[in-house]
Amino acid sequence: MTNGTNRIFDEFARLMTDAAGAAQNVRREVETAFQAQAERFMNSMDLVKREEFEVVREMAIAARDENDALKARIEALEAKLSQQS
Question: From first to last of its 85 residues, what are the pLDDT tens digits of the chain?
């Protein structure tokens, strides 16, 4: 009886191990399918990637700084011109 019980437990353990492996494979397949679908969805929405956003953001900051510098130069020149008049 002991050998029969051990054999049943061994078979049950093997079955559970196989089931756990199958569940992990199904999980990986679902994750892969979800990621692919999410990527297709994001691409169809015409969203920008974070890296592209950061590059454009830095360009905007640089342009704003340059505009501020040019505005200060114009104001200084206007002030100088009004003093000469």
Answer: 456 678 888 888 888 888 888 889 889 999 999 999 998 888 888 888 899 999 999 999 999 999 999 999 999 999 999 998 7
Q: Exposed (0-12), middle (13-18) or buried (19+): which is 67, by Cβ within 10 Å? A: exposed
Statement to judge: residues 41 and 55 lie in one domain: no
**Alpha-carbon distance 66 to 68, whole Å?**
5
- Spatial distance between the Cα atoms of 33 and 41, rounded to a whole number of angstroms: 12
Q: What is the pTM of this model?
A: 0.48
Specify whether 27 is located in the same domain as 64.
Answer: no
- Using the structure block, give the residue that is written with the tokens 């340059």: 66
Domain span at residue 11 reads 1-47
